[in-house]
Amino acid sequence: MKKLTLILVFISFFCSLLAQEKKEKISTIYIIKSNSFGKEIVTRNLVMNSSNIASLDIMKNDDVKKRFGNSERLVVLVVTPKANVKLTSLKDFYNNKRLSPSKRSLPITVDGIPLASADDAIVDESSIETFNPKADSIVLKTSSYESFLKKKNAKID
User: Is the confidence at residue 153, as pLDDT, over 70?
Assistant: First the structure.
């Protein structure tokens, strides 16, 4: 699963490099296939621990074009979580954390990366290591990221 995390980071990094080079925005869409929902969920923001992913596939361009139209600047990842993973909307996550309504519209960063839009974000609550509402933003750190930092710091020492 560590390889899967690196693959996801690489895909995101590669897409951002392409976008900078072409001066175009490349978007990522996640299609979540899960028995717990009874249907698939389409989102632009997924906060999930890589160890909770049962499978990850990149949708072929032809299929992307059929489903979403122009696929030149679109990467679609099909994610199947493990059976015991509970995914929730960001709104439900905030409710569970008892976040005050006045803070719910603050910008969000996940592992240091700002979410462009949190409207359709899906969260695997078990993957959140740190939830830190600040005065001007909400900071989330995942267990994958925290584990990465610990290993990185251990190598430096």
Answer: no
